[in-house]
Amino acid sequence: MKALQLNGLVKRFGDITAVDNIDLSVQEGEIFGLLGPNGAGKSTTINMISGLINPDSGTIKLFDKDVAKNALFAKTTIGLVPQDIAIYGDLTAYENVSFFAGLYGIKGRELQQNAEEALEFVGLSEHAKRFPKGFSGGMKRRLNIACAIAHKPKLIIMDEPTVGIDPQSRNHILQSVKELNKRGSTIIYTSHYMEEVEEVCSRIAIMDFGKVIAEGTEADLKSIISDTDTLFVTVENPYKVNDKELLKIPGVKNVDISENDIRVSTSRDVMNLDRIIQYFIGTHNTIKNIENRTPDLETVFLSLTGRKLRDQEA
Asked: Which of 23, 80, 139, 294 makes a 20 to 30 Å CA pair with 242?
């Protein structure tokens, strides 16, 4: 069964079309990655699925039920972990989870049990009586997840759940995502960290300018750029490099400059390595290492959108 089916979904804000007639499906039991650079329409799509805003046209179906005709079903079926932490600092961790679970009509002993189970799942049972204003960033993120899953939703949307936290907390959340999926939840996962998407997602969709421009497994997406080589060039001073000059070299498709290295995506059919090396020599920039690597998901993303995902806003 399809956990989610979007057909012809459109959302405009004035003259801007944020989501442009997209079709998208998520199978029950998947961890589905939704990626897109700033302004791609990803957040708008999530807000429509979650019922926070209404589409201008198109349909949204959850487990074969039209959301527009089954609003209460949609509300109780979805758990949303927002990018911005949505917890109350003047309520204890337990009170926060109980409050959000209570919004779904859960009461009494069931409410208490669900809240306790959610806190235990995210590793915060020992902190149930503490106020989250004193929590670390990672603990707040985990409490954010507990509040979203206490009503036991079938579909969980996790929007940037690991932003700004330490590696240990990030690993805990990634393991939680996998465990939720094992327990039967379908998950839509967004992140600016490609390695997270590669680790947890079974299928991925890439959005840009309001459209879905690619969809499939990681292997499917990598096959799209099977004619592309990726060179990682480590130089003494990356910021001496002018990406516009590199892009003038025949065959060069994309250039991504970071503090660690320069990533150059180039057509496999064009013999241009000598010209690329000559460019770096001409900048009087010592080449420390040059390596041709198998394309990864970030290379696919850069090739398809021409824009970096990391460090972009959702």
From this structure: 294
Model pLDDT for residues 254-305, shown as the tens digit of each residue: 898 888 789 998 988 899 999 999 998 888 888 999 998 777 788 788 777 7
Of 189, 221, 253, the position where a domain reaches its end is 221
- Supply the DSSP symbol for 122: T
Residues 179 and 53 in one domain: yes
User: Is there a single domain that holds both residue 67 and residue 206?
Assistant: yes
Helical spans, DSSP H, in 122-242: 137-149, 167-182, 194-200, 218-224
pLDDT digits (tens, 9 = 90+) for 85-101: 999 999 999 999 999 99
In the block, tokens 């306790």 appear at 116
Domain count, the chain: 2
For 110, the 3-state DSSP assignment is helix
Q: Is 159 exposed, middle or buried (0-12, 13-18, 19+ CB in 10 A)?
A: buried
Structural domain harbouring 46: 2-221
CA 42 to chain centre: 9
Check residue 238 and report its DSSP letter.
G
Q: At what angle do helices 93-102 and 137-149 cross, to 10 degrees?
A: 30
User: CA quadruple 109, 115, 121, 126: dihedral positive or negative?
Assistant: negative
Contact between residue 181 and residue 9 where contact means Cβ atoms under 8 Å apart: no
pLDDT confidence tier of residue 193, bands split at 50, 70 and 90: confident
Domain containing residue 134: CATH number: 3.40.50.300
| pTM for the whole structure | 0.79
